[in-house]
Design brief:
This protein has ten helices and no strands. It is mostly helical. The longest helix is centred in the middle third of the chain and has 31 residues. The two termini are about 20 Å apart.
């Protein structure tokens, strides 16, 4: 995760103490990001309940999806653009591992897990929390690392896939704190199709305003050869990312099970509102 391990550090040209300080600082950045992102979910009862009952196959698939997100994010907006694919894979593994460590430590401190707990329940709770925490580890390392080194991701040409990855991480950053709650289902059940459509339109307009008029010098347009005007293309893609993120999160928290298609669709639209705000903010934050 931006050189968590000692690889990449020129050991012959550095004193061991300097190497240890640099590595420790990078880990500290990751822990800070993981806590800032994951702490609200680590203190959420719905997360504990889902973790205690989630099937193993569901967890394994979620781990694979999270690892893919980390790979894409690290490859496109990492602080080391010259890193090889092997380095990116190792960084993603380290971020995922640190997410597990942070989640397990906090859950133990607040008394949500203990050594006498059934292994399936313990593993489910830790894994459930670690997946979202690891994304915070990755985001925190990029942001804090760039600030500490005076570097800026705006100096790099981020491809369309990378910009979508940044938007996706931003959407998860915001929507994940809302997704496990029952309020999303309550709003969806009480909303009519007309209200859901209004939310979708309002979300699209708000996204266009954020991307089009908020701090333009920090946010780039989506790079595309498409003939669609950027003021339309950017918000539409961002909203699409938010809808996909909402679907993934609702599936992850098992809110799409045993409910009608109409209710599930309204749940997705409801969660896409904070997701779109997060996707827009993510592109501004990481200057993608």
């Amino acid at each position: 995760m931006r050189r968590f391990s000692f690889r990449g550090l020129k050991l012959p040209q550095r004193r061991l103490s300097q190497t240890i300080v640099v590595a420790a600082g990078t880990y500290a950045q990751g822990v800070a990001g993981g806590l800032m992102f994951g702490l609200p979910l680590l203190f959420t009862m719905e997360m504990w309940q889902h973790g205690a009952t989630i099937p193993s196959a569901h967890l394994l698939l979620s781990i694979g999806l999270t690892f893919g997100i980390l790979l894409l994010f690290n490859r496109t907006v990492g602080t080391h653009p010259d890193a090889s694919f092997r380095d990116v894979v190792m960084e993603s593994v380290e971020e995922l591992g640190l997410g597990f460590i942070v989640a397990a430590t906090v859950l133990h401190l607040i008394g949500r897990i203990h050594v006498h707990m059934p292994f399936a329940e313990l593993a489910g709770k830790v894994t459930m929390e670690a997946l979202v925490t690891s994304i915070g580890v990755s985001i925190g390392t990029v942001q804090f690392g760039a600030n500490a080194n005076g570097a800026s991701t705006s100096k790099r040409e981020v491809p369309i896939l990378g910009q979508i990855a940044v938007a996706f991480c931003g959407a998860i950053f915001v929507a994940a704190s809302v997704a496990p709650t029952e309020e999303v289902l309550l709003i969806a059940v009480e909303s009519s199709p007309v209200k859901a459509f209004r939310m979708l339109v309002a979300c699209l307009i708000l996204t266009a305003l954020i991307l089009g008029f908020t701090d333009l010098r920090r946010s780039r347009d989506f790079r595309t050869q498409c003939a669609i005007p950027r003021l339309i293309f950017g918000p539409v893609v961002t909203l699409g990312v938010a809808l996909v993120t909402a679907t993934v999160l609702l599936w992850f928290f098992r809110h799409l099970d045993e409910r009608s298609f109409a209710v599930n669709l309204r749940q997705i639209v409801t969660l896409a509102v904070p997701g779109a705000l997060g996707a827009s903010a993510g592109r501004i934050l990481f200057k993608a």
